[in-house]
């Protein structure tokens, strides 16, 4: 599998349907994008069935395993070249032109394959088709993301991904449809040209990407296209957002370099990016080395290895495996955000290993109990028709069907039944015809077996184990794990790794079968899967629910697979941080905070640089009697990095940043000017701009006040030994202090922030001026003052979310129940409280929906009765 769908919300699909039914342009865009995915999937699956009939028409293909492998895998080789050149074509020629070019190449490749008079011509056609697939695989999603409305972008990309899987399923259907048609494989391969023609015609009616046109300086043309895509009230906001994105993109290109060499150097010199690549490339390579594309490219052949000789039956059973792949893709969309990326991949790999080991046992047993060779029956066909290796063997009594096939001969089953003794004959068309005339079944790839159906069932389970986890998660992981400025280069490295691993597996599968047998080959893939399981366990972190900046911070710190912290407890500890992040400005603050700490603390050298100006700052404060001498000596430390699970670490990060603000500013200024790489200078510049903004300083002080109040409570709740009554008093006092902060502390806070800004030469906005930003202007909200924005939109909103979170988790009912249960059974009090707390949160959610309060169920207070 070369791609996976991205998740889209129900709202996106609803909005997509509304816009698609009312706008012909949106419908054409969705259809065109879908055909691109359809072509991608069709080419992946069609060769599996066509290969069975290509071998019949070309004797040399039937005799040479390497030639079969080349025919299958050259499409992958062409895709690697197409993907590599696709980036250049997208930038130089545009997205639309690149897709049109890919359609032309794909159509030519389909025609060349359909009329191929010789195997080498077929190989050329496969390369052309692969080249078109490679260009389309990276251009179509890019065009969709740039030429579709933002509100439905996820839905269209998701549809594109699902149709890749549908294209694979369709290829098996078409293969099955042409099994009795003269020309069989030529029709199978040639039909692929029709969707390419349809997409070409549709693309002629669609415009170029407005983003690409804007990048080329064609702003008027870009605007005209946006007017077709967006509603009238959305256009200006979209143009502004596009302008800012393009400018930021150009800035980032300048920071990390413009040539491939500069970008690679910048990527590998960044420890977080390196660790991200270890994880991303590991997942992509493991995806291929579990052997999935041997099933996609050779599934009918594998079914024949299991002892099912009929080509149409083999294709029909392969259709089932393809359908299961589609089911697995849907399961992936449902499970990935619920169970997480890492867990889904690990569970998927464990199930894959079990299936591969089972397949190994099934194929080994099938080889062991293969029907014996009847010497009299064999010789009755005549010396010219008999297998030469059989005639030369000193002890023919030990021969069975499997030994006959390994000698590159064929087994002609008995008229009494396929599982009885039969003849070992030369594998030629003439001898095969003689066997068929006697109403006997010809086996040339696998031996008849009573447990062959079991192999097909396990193969289906293997697909179900693969598709929801290793099928699509590696692609989702690679879209999340790299910092934004490195996402293009790192995503390209990971994708090329995937294609190359795909090429290796598809180019060697039949040779491995010949050398090791089916059982040995699947055992080898089980070994690769085990290595992949260990590598993913050690290298791949969980990215579920993390912002890009949080992922970067996790990689900077280093991933520890043995961190056994209970995630449910982590959720309780960080609940108030999450509540604060409900306010957009606070969410942005925490992203900036993580970025600043990462830049300053990325090496021991930076920490040393930080300590020096901080020591100077402390000396100045002592000299001016602003702090006591004894305290100054103990305050020289390093900037605290907030952990992923501990509440107090967030509070410590904020306190240490406030305490060391001047020193941090000095270090960032030095790095922004004298950093050794583009990446260092760019990171420091962005961090410094965030640090010296009024928004950042304002929220920094708010969070210090709030977290200072709640820190004692959170510390108490982290203790293994709980003093329940004291904790409940802490809950009550915390709520009271936060409410007091909201009611009477605005003036004091604003004065403190203004004083801090004056001390550090940070510009203070005019509180009486009108406030406006892109979100407010696009939503046409009433004009408000700057002071209203900071007081109501941020200060009041943050505190309200804190109170709401505390009231939700510690309602009066839950608190009273806990105190009562403590007096009766102190040992189990907190367990009962946790159960009631979960029950209460569920009731609170229902109450907010229905407008009524949820009562405590009787069984929850049974111990009190």
Relevant terms:
two-stranded antiparallel ribbon; mainly alpha; disordered C terminus; about 850 residues; 40 helices; 3-stranded antiparallel beta sheet; about 75% helix; 5 strands; elongated
How would you sum up this structure in a few lines?
The protein contains 40 helices and 5 strands. It has 865 residues and is mostly helical.
The strand line-up of the biggest sheet is 2-1-3
Count of individual helical segments: 40
Q: What's the count of strands? A: 5
> What amount of the residues lies in strands?
under 5%
Rg, Å, rounded: 33 Å
Can you tell me about this structure?
About 75% of the residues lie in helices and about 0% in strands. Helix 2 runs parallel beside helix 7, helix 5 runs antiparallel to helix 9 and helix 29 crosses helix 32. The protein has 40 helices and 5 strands. With about 850 residues, it is mainly alpha-helical. The strands form 2 sheets. It has a 3-stranded antiparallel sheet. The protein has a two-stranded antiparallel sheet with strand order 4-5. The longest helix is centred in the middle third of the chain and has 53 residues.
């Amino acid at each position: 599998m070369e791609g996976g769908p991205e998740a889209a919300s129900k709202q996106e699909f609803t909005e997509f349907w509304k816009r698609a039914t009312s706008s012909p342009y949106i419908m054409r865009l969705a259809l065109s994008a879908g055909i691109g995915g359809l072509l991608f999937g069709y080419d992946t699956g069609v060769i599996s069935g066509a290969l069975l009939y290509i071998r019949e028409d070309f004797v040399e293909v039937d005799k040479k395993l390497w030639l079969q492998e080349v025919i299958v895998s050259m499409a992958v080789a062409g895709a690697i070249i197409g993907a590599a050149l696709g980036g250049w074509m997208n930038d130089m020629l545009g997205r639309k032109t690149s897709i049109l070019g890919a359609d032309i190449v794909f159509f030519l490749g389909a025609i060349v394959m359909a009329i191929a008079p010789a195997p080498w011509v077929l190989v050329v056609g496969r390369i052309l088709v692969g080249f078109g697939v490679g260009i389309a695989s990276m251009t179509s999603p890019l065009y969709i993301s740039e030429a579709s409305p933002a509100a439905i972008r996820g839905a269209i990309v998701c549809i594109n991904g699902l149709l890749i899987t549908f294209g694979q399923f369709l290829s098996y259907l078409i293969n099955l449809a042409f099994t009795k048609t003269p020309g069989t494989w030529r029709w199978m391969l040639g039909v692929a040209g029709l969707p390419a023609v349809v997409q070409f015609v549709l693309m002629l009616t669609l415009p170029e990407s407005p983003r690409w046109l804007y990048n080329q300086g064609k702003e008027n043309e870009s605007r005209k296209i946006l007017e077709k895509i967006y509603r009238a009230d959305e256009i200006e906001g979209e143009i502004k957002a596009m302008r800012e994105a393009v400018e930021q993109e150009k800035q980032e290109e300048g920071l990390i370099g413009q040539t491939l060499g500069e970008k690679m150097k910048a990527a590998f010199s960044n420890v977080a990016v390196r660790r991200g690549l270890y994880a991303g490339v590991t997942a992509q390579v493991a995806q291929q080395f579990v052997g999935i594309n041997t099933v996609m490219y050779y599934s009918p052949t594998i079914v024949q290895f299991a002892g099912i000789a009929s080509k149409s039956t083999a294709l029909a059973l392969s259709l089932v495996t393809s359908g299961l792949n589609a089911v697995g893709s849907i399961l992936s969309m449902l499970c990935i955000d619920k169970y997480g990326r890492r867990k889904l991949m690990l569970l998927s790999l464990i199930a894959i290993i079990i299936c591969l080991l089972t397949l190994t046992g099934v194929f080994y047993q099938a080889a062991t109990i293969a029907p014996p060779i009847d010497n009299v029956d064999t010789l009755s066909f005549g010396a010219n028709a008999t297998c030469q290796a059989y005639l030369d063997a000193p002890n023919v009594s030990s021969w069975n069907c499997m030994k006959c096939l390994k000698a590159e001969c064929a087994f002609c089953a008995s008229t009494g039944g396929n599982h009885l003794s039969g003849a070992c004959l030369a594998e030629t068309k003439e001898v095969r015809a003689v066997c068929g005339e006697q109403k006997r079944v010809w086996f040339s790839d696998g031996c008849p077996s009573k447990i062959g159906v079991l192999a097909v069932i396990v193969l289906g389970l293997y697909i179900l184990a693969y598709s929801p986890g290793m099928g699509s998660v590696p692609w989702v992981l690679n879209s999340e794990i790299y910092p934004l400025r490195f996402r293009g280069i790192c995503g390209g490295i990971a994708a090329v790794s995937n294609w190359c691993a795909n090429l290796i597996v598809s180019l060697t599968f039949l040779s491995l079968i010949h050398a090791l047998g089916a059982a040995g080959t699947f055992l080898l893939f089980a070994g690769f899967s085990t290595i992949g399981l260990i590598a993913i366990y050690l290298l791949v972190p969980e990215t579920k629910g993390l912002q890009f900046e949080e992922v970067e911070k996790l990689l900077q710190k280093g991933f520890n697979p043995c961190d056994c912290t209970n995630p449910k407890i982590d959720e309780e500890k960080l609940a108030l941080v999450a509540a604060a992040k409900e306010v957009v400005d606070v969410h942005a603050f925490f992203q900036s905070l993580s970025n600043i700490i990462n830049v300053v603390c990325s090496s021991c050298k930076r920490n040393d640089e930080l300590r020096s100006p901080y020591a100077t700052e402390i000396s100045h404060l002592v000299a001016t009697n602003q702090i006591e001498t004894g305290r100054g000596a103990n305050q020289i430390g390093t900037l605290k990095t907030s952990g992923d699970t501990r509440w107090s670490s967030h509070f410590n990060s904020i306190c240490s940043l406030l305490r060391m603000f001047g020193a941090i500013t000095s270090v960032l200024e030095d790095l922004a000017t004298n950093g050794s790489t583009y990446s260092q200078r760019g990171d420091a510049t962005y961090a410094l701009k965030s640090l010296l903004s009024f928004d950042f300083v304002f929220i920094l002080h708010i969070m210090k006040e709030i977290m200072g109040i709640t820190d004692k409570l959170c510390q108490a709740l982290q203790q293994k030994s709980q003093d329940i009554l004291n904790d409940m008093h802490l809950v009550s006092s915390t709520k009271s202090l936060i409410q007091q902060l909201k009611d009477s502390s605005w003036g004091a806070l604003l004065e403190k922030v203004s004083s801090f800004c004056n001390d550090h030469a940070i510009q203070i906005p005019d509180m009486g001026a009108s406030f406006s930003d892109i979100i407010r202007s696009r939503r046409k909200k009433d004009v408000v003052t700057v002071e209203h924005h900071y007081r109501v939109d941020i200060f009041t909103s943050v505190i309200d979310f804190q109170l709401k979170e505390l009231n939700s988790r510690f309602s009066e009912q839950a608190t009273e129940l806990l105190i009562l249960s403590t007096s009766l059974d102190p040992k189990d009090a907190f367990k009962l409280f946790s159960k009631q707390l979960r029950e209460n949160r569920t009731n609170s959610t229902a109450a907010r929906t229905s407008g009524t309060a949820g009562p405590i169920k009787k069984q929850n207070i049974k111990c009190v009765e």
